[in-house]
Amino acid sequence: MEKISCKIKRFNGSEAWYQEYEVPYEKGKTILWLLTTIREEQDPTLNFTSACRHAICGSCAVRINGNAFLACNTPLDEVIETFDTMTLTFEPLQNFEVVKDLVIVWEPKMEKMKKVKPWLEPTANGSKETGFLQTEEEFHQIAAPTDCILCGVCASECNQLTVNQDGYLEPFILNRAYRFAVDSRDGSPEEHLRPVLENELWKCLHCMQCVSKCPKSIPLTDEIAYLRSETMKMGEMNNQGAKHAYAFHDDVKKKGRLNETMLPIKTDGLVHTAMTKVPFALRMIKKGKINPFHFPKEVEGIAGVRALYEYAKEVKD
Amino acid sequence: MKYAFFPGCTLESAAEELMISTKKVASALGIELIELNGWTCCGASHIQDVDDFLATSINARNIALAEELGVDKLLTVCNTCTLMLRTSKLKMDKNEKLNTKVNTGLNNIGLEYKGTVEVTHLLWALIEDYGLENLKKTVRVPLKGLKVANFYGCHILMPPNIMGFENHMNPRSMELVAEALGAECVDFDQRLGCCGFHAVFPAQKEVMNMTGINCLSPKDAGADCIVTPCPLCQMQLDAYQPDAQKGFNEDITMPILHLPQLIGLALGFSPEELAINRHVVDAIPALSKGFLPV
Ligand code: FES
C-alpha cells in the first residue's frame, strides 16, 4: 500500500527536531485529516491547532515543503501533485513565535494590530437612531477585506517580514487598515492610514507571496497600492517610496521611458545620493551600466502617451 | 517564429548586456524579434501606487502597439515587464467597463486594444513554442560540468492567476532549459527567493541582507553561478553585491548570469560576445573552472 512520509518539525519549548511518521495514503483527504490521523493513531503528543474544519476559524495554517497552507481546506492530493512527491515536510508558520510543534503565538500580532486602529471611527453622517446606511457599491468595497480569517498564511510568506519583523506590519494588518479606511461609514480614514505609513508601508517588496497564497484570495497587493495612493493624497510625499513611484510616473510622461541615471537622485535627493550611492554609481559607470551622458529620447508617440495621462486625470475627477 | 518584442527600460542602459545576448541568441535560434515602435516603461510595479488606471492604460497601449504588428505574441525578457503587461491584459479582458474606459483614451490617440495578442516571456516561449527538443539540437557546446543555481524571481511565477505558466510553488522551467543546455542544476533554499529590487531604496538595509542570503544559499549548495530570467533580479544580485558583502563576514561572491547568456554560451558564443564582461561580479573565472566555450 502507498504511504505518505511526513517529516514534522517538533518543538517542546526548548529543543526542536524533525520527527518522521508514515501514513497509508487515502484518496480525497485533506491535510488536516493527515495531521489528525497521525495524532489519533500514532502520536498523541503531536500539537497543532484546528477548530472549524471549514476555513472559517483560521487556526489550522501550517507550512508544507516550504509553503503555507490552510490544512482544513487543502486537498492532500493537490499537495502531492504540486510537489510531485509522497514526502511532505511540515513546519509551523514562519514569522510567528512557536509555542509547541506546529502551534504559534497570536497575542503579539493582535497587540501590533491595534496600531492601525482596527475598528470603525463612525462618520457624522449617521447615528444610533438613523443607522449608517451603505450603497451596494460601498458594501462591495469592504466585501473582500472582511473575508480575512486571520490564518497567518500571508504573514508567514511575507519576504519583508522575514528580515524585518519589528518594523513592518503583517499583510493581514494592512488588510485590516484597508478594510476600515475604505469603509464609507468610517469618518477618519487618516487614523488608519497614518500608522500604516509610519510602520514602513513603503517597504513592501512586491514579491506577491501574500496575494498568491491567501486562502481567501484577498487582493492584498492591490490594497497595499491603495494604501500608498491614499497616503500620497494626504500629502505624504516626502519619503523615498512616494518619490520613487513618482519618478517612474513622471519619467514615462516626459519621455516614455525611465531615466535610470536620475532615479537615485529623484528618490533620495542629491545630497543623500552623493553620500551613499557613489561607490555603486562608479562601479556601474566602470562597467558601462550607467552612462551619465545618456538621456533617453522621447519615444515615438509621446504626445499620445501624454494624452493618456491627461485622460486618466479627467476620468478620475 | 516571430514575436513583437518589448525590451523594457533596463535593457537600454543598466542591462544592455541582456539586449545584446537576447538578440544574439534569438537570431541564432531563428526567432525573429520585432521591437515595438514607441513602447513605454511598463511602470515597473510602481506607477499603480500613484494611479492604477493610468498603469493599466499605458500597458494597454503597449499591447495595442503589438497588436498592430499582426503577431500572436508579445515577448519580454523581464519578469516585472511580463507581470505588468499581463496584469493590464487580464484587467482589459475581464472587466468590460474598464476596457471601454481605457479604450476611449486609446481611441483618442488612434489606438485600440483588441485583446488579440498574448504576453509571454522568452523562458516560456522556448518551452511552449520553440520546444526543448529543438533547443537541444542547437547546442554546440554542452555546458557540461557547469553547476547553475536557477533563481526564478517572483514576478515570473506570481500571482498565479495572472502568470500561471507553471505551479508557482514548484516550477521546473528554468531547470528544463538549463538541463537541455547540458548544465547541472543545483537545488538551494533561495531558489524561489525574492531579490528585493523593487524596494531597494525604501528598504535598503533589509534588501542588502536579502542579497547576501540569496548569494550565500547557492554558494553553500556548490553552484558556480546564479542564472535568472529577470534583469532586475540580476541587477540586484550583481550590481549591489559589493554593498551586500559589507554586512557579511563570509565571502558571498556569486556570479549572476542572465538566462540568454547561459543559452548563448551553449550555442557557442564567447562570454565577450554575450557581454558577460559587463557584469559587476566577474563571471569568467566561474565559467572557466568547469568549462569555457573557447
Ligand atoms: S480549522 Fe478552521 S480554518 Fe481550518
TrEMBL record, chain A:
Residues 2-93 form the 2Fe-2S ferredoxin-type domain. Its cofactor is [3Fe-4S] cluster; [4Fe-4S] cluster; [2Fe-2S] cluster. Pathway: Carbohydrate metabolism; tricarboxylic acid cycle. The keyword Iron applies. Binds 1 [3Fe-4S] cluster. One of its GO terms (biological process) is tricarboxylic acid cycle. One of its GO terms (molecular function) is 3 iron, 4 sulfur cluster binding. Keywords: 2Fe-2S, 3Fe-4S, 4Fe-4S, Iron, Iron-sulfur, Metal-binding, Oxidoreductase, Tricarboxylic acid cycle. PROSITE patterns: 2FE2S_FER_1, 2FE2S_FER_2, 4FE4S_FER_1, 4FE4S_FER_2. Residues 193-223 form the 4Fe-4S ferredoxin-type domain. Belongs to the succinate dehydrogenase/fumarate reductase iron-sulfur protein family. This is Fumarate reductase iron-sulfur subunit.
Automatic annotation (TrEMBL), chain B:
The keyword Oxidoreductase applies. The keyword Oxidoreductase applies. Pfam families: CCG (PF02754). One of its GO terms (molecular function) is oxidoreductase activity. InterPro entries: Cys_rich_dom, HdrB/HdrD_reductase. Keywords: Oxidoreductase. Residues 3-86, 148-238 form the Cysteine-rich domain. This is Succinate dehydrogenase / fumarate reductase cytochrome b subunit. It comes from Evansella caseinilytica.
